[in-house]
Amino acid sequence: MEQVVKISNNLYIPRNRIIAVLPISSAVARKMRGMHKVGGSIVNMTFGEESKTILIMDSGHIFVTSKTLEEVDEALWR
């Protein structure tokens, strides 16, 4: 059975499908966000809050969250 991670209320993603977690301010994160806006594989999970972290999935999807890097790290490894 896949272990899922609760990102926020009613939002869960499978832990084993995450390949990278990056702060939104990093140059790599900004480039990837810009590239994927055109392709449509970016999922905004901030609910209107400030973007802080992106999760890169093995399917090529990018999830943008309002959680800090530390909060996501804690959710992944508890």
N→C terminal distance: 17 Å
User: What percent of residues are in strands?
Assistant: 35-45%
Output the strand order for the largest sheet: 3-5-6-4
Question: SSE order, as H and E?
Answer: EEEHEEEH
Rg of Cα set: 12 Å
Percent range of helical residues: 25-40%
Q: What gross morphology would you assign?
A: globular
- Strand tally is 6
Structural class: alpha+beta
User: Can you tell me the residue ranges where pLDDT is under 50 for at least 5 consecutive residues?
Assistant: none
Number of domains: 1
What's the average pLDDT?
86
- Number of DSSP helices? 2
Characterize the biggest β-sheet. 4 strands, mixed
Protein name: Regulator of extracellular matrix RemA (YlzA/DUF370 family)
Pfam families: RemA-like
Organism: Thermosipho japonicus
InterPro entries: RemA-like
Features:
two-stranded antiparallel ribbon; 78 residues; alpha+beta; 2 helices; RemA-like
